[in-house]
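Running this now, will post back.
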Amino acid sequence: MKIIVNEKELKEYFDGLARLLPQSSAIQPQGSNPCDMSALLAELRQTIREELASLGMEGQRDAGSYNLNKLRQVFEPYTSKPAELLTSAGTVEGTITKVGGDFLVVREPGGTMVMVPLEQLVSFQLTGKKVER
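Update: finished.
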């Protein structure tokens, strides 16, 4: 679920809640004071903000896992093929030996196995002999 609101709409929503809360003073316990209401209102606002933020993060995580699955499907046909992978940490050259859920394993020419997280991948190209037609 995704909720899209602008700042003005959100402010109007909270202002409406604030107008409703003081009207319920008839059902307040006798020992409560207006400071408790402002604290309650602040806590309510904070809770709603946290909920909205967590919903937004869940949506991003779901989209991220979908994109990683799609990337995995792209790389599976290139297993056992020489490739050059550019990551934020540098370039990795070698043969793709395994495609995991969110990573690739590349065997470099010296025999070193390197695990490359798909999230860190910037670009990819096959290397090796080119076949001319």
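The mean pLDDT is 76. More later if anyone needs it.
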